[in-house]
Description:
The protein is an alpha+beta fold and 89 residues long. The protein is 21% helix and 25% strand. It has a single domain (2-84), classed as Ubiquitin-like (UB roll). A hairpin with a 2-residue loop joins strand 3 and strand 4 (62-63).
Amino acid sequence: MATVxxxxxxxxxxxxxxxxxxxxxxxxxxxxxxARFPSVRPYVVDEHGAIRRHVVVFLDGRQLLDRAGLGEATxxxxxxxxxxxxxxx
Length: 89
């Protein structure tokens, strides 16, 4: 199981819930999370399942580099943090 946490702005789609969900990879964990909270999915991933351009995902404190495949392995007790990145000028 991995714990998925969202920043406050995205928590409005999950009523602030943090969830422990199963999965061997980041993609599997996110799929299980989105099955539980489908309304947040379009704000995190695009229509191809890749992380959206202005969203950042951290796995155990490290920024996720595989934004399209989401194939990084997750260990039991993994922490996944999802936040919208600030951009602009």
